[in-house]
From TrEMBL:
Pfam families cross-referenced by the UniProt entry: MFS_1 (PF07690)
Name of the protein in question: EmrB/QacA subfamily drug resistance transporter
Family, per entry: Belongs to the major facilitator superfamily. EmrB family.
Any single GO CC term annotated in Swiss-Prot or TrEMBL for this entry: plasma membrane
Subcellular location: Cell membrane
Transmembrane segments: 9-29, 49-69, 76-103, 109-129, 136-157, 163-183, 195-216, 228-245, 265-290, 302-323, 330-347, 359-377, 398-415, 447-466
UniProt membrane topology term: Multi-pass membrane protein
Keywords: Cell membrane, Membrane, Transmembrane, Transmembrane helix, Transport
Record-linked InterPro entries: EmrB-like (IPR004638), MFS (IPR011701), MFS_dom (IPR020846), MFS_trans_sf (IPR036259)
Organism: Planomicrobium soli
Origin: domain of life: Bacteria
CDD domains the record matches: MFS_LmrB_MDR_like (cd17503)
Residues covered by the Major facilitator superfamily (MFS) profile domain: 11-471
GO MF term set: transmembrane transporter activity
């Protein structure tokens, strides 16, 4: 069999449909949580598990995705992922109680956890290195635009209909995607059916990533002095250290951590973590500012972020093509400079900052992020040999989940600590209670954005060290040709 000259766009389109609908659900329920609390008569701390539980399942299963992608064909993994996702969506939509709704949500997450690593791995295998930027740019559109549109649609539906409609809207799309996978999807990647699963690694990974995600996600509501917070974080860190040492000793590790010997992959991971932490500052702090301090409705809050999502959707394919032509550094340096500058502008918010001004800064920030995220990640993955792609995609996706949880908890803690300090100063000066609350929270938000700016500046400094892969790319190209000769439908 000769080298595949034309990428299988039909297969990629089916995978994109499945990935879009699964990623879309990540942020779909955020605005609907108050309505679910009232309807199912649960507390705020309980309903938050719909978000935290989803994140935990992702954090536990994404590291194991490398095994599934290597052990089974892309068709089998896709059908399993979409079947689980569809089942979870149906269960959540008809759930009579909160416990059944949570079970449905976590089954959803188990399917979604496999989709992003699977799609990234297929793209890496299907496209030659010089065309991967464009393909990953389209993937970037799915990865960022889907969760960005979620709150806007959710806000409108929750205001006019039942929160259950959210699940019934995405269920037909999920079922169509599943049907296409069963009847139309063909195998593109080679699977190693002899690979074994190390059960101890699964346990250590689950405790490690799960403990860290749960601890940091709970810190904002439970407080850092709660044993459930620092206890789970400590258990997670210890388990993760043991997990890493175990992977170094195994012939068939669950996650191949040795890929960090490739400098550009290691650099891309650090930049992606820093960018994810900085990016979450806007995703977490902006709704607090616009709804609590400015008094803007949930629907208008979602609409405020929509132009930024649309800009990212437009720019992702463009930056992909620019990456293919010029490389990651040319895009990452100005992109991170924009992120750092717009984050600084967010640290100067006031009670009088206009709606349009907030929208413009947020949109510019998303424009900067669109120049960085996928080019940097793709540049790092391009340095890996093809057998390491499942491990590289699994590690990247896991780190983004962990960085998001840590970044959110860190920034919320900074906000609360600063707001409390400022509130005491204003109270001592004799200010009115309402003035104290708004100004203290505003100062806390501004301070968190200011710290977030320095995180973005760290990523900017590291971006100057990005280089195009050379020798490794040629080796990977040879392996792609070899792989495509082995693939059978």
């Amino acid at each position: 069999m000769t080298e595949q000259k034309k990428p299988p766009y039909g297969i990629i389109a089916i995978l994109f449909t499945g990935a879009f609908v699964t990623i879309f659900t990540q942020t779909l329920l955020n605005i609907a949580l108050p309505r679910i609390m009232a309807d199912l008569e649960v507390s705020a701390s309980t309903v938050q598990w719909l978000v935290t539980g989803y994140m935990l399942v992702n954090g536990i299963l994404i590291p194991a995705s490398a095994f599934f992608i290597q052990r089974y064909s892309n068709r089998s993994v896709f059908i399993l992922a979409m079947a689980l996702f569809s089942l979870g969506t149906l269960l959540a939509g008809v759930a009579p109680t909160f416990s059944i709704l949570l079970a449905g949500r976590m089954i959803q997450a188990s399917g979604a956890a496999l989709m992003m690593p699977l799609l990234m791995n297929v793209i890496l295998a299907a496209f030659p290195v010089e065309k991967r930027g464009s393909a990953m740019g389209i993937f970037g559109l799915v990865m960022v635009v889907a969760p960005a549109i979620g709150p806007t649609l959710s806000g409108y539906i929750v205001e006019h209909y039942s929160w259950r409609v959210l699940f019934f809207i995405i269920l037909p799309v999920a079922l169509i995607s599943l049907a296409l996978g069963i009847f139309k999807l063909k195998n593109l990647t080679v699977q190693n059916r002899d690979i074994s699963l190390d059960k101890a690694s699964i346990v250590l990974s689950s405790i490690g990533f799960g403990g860290i995600l749960y601890g940091f996600s709970s810190a904002g509501t439970m407080g850092w002095d709660d044993p459930a917070v620092y206890g789970t974080i400590a258990a997670g860190v210890v388990s993760l250290v043991i997990f890493v040492f175990r992977q170094l000793r195994l012939d068939e590790p669950l996650l191949e951590v040795r890929i960090y010997k490739y400098p550009m992959f290691a650099l891309s991971s650090v930049i992606s973590v820093a960018l994810s932490m900085s990016m979450f500052s806007a995703m977490i702090l902006m709704p607090i500012y616009v709804q609590t301090i400015k008094g803007i409705s949930p629907v208008e809050s979602g609409l405020l972020m929509l132009p930024g999502a649309l800009v990212m959707g437009f720019m992702s394919p463009v930056t992909g093509r620019l990456f293919d032509k010029y490389g990651a550094k040319v895009l990452a340096v100005p992109g991170l400079a924009i992120v750092a500058f717009t984050t600084y502008l967010f640290s100067q918010l006031s009670l009088e900052t206009s709606y349009l001004e907030i929208m413009a800064i947020y949109t510019a920030r998303m424009f900067g992020i669109s120049m960085v995220m996928m080019p940097v990640m793709t540049n790092g993955l391009n340095t890996l040999p093809i057998k390491s792609y499942p491990h590289g995609t699994a590690i990247n996706n896991t780190l983004q989940q962990v960085a998001g949880a840590i970044g959110s908890a860190f920034l919320i803690t900074l906000m609360n600590t600063r707001a409390e300090s400022t509130g005491k100063e204003l109270a001592a000066s004799g200010a009115a209670p309402e003035t104290i609350m708004n100004n203290a929270m505003l100062d806390g938000i501004n301070f968190s954005f200011f710290v977030s700016m320095f995180i973005a500046l760290v990523a900017l400094a590291l971006a100057f060290f990005i280089k195009k892969p050379t020798r490794e790319v040629k080796e990977a190209e040879k392996e792609i040709v070899y792989q495509q000769k082995e693939v059978t439908e």
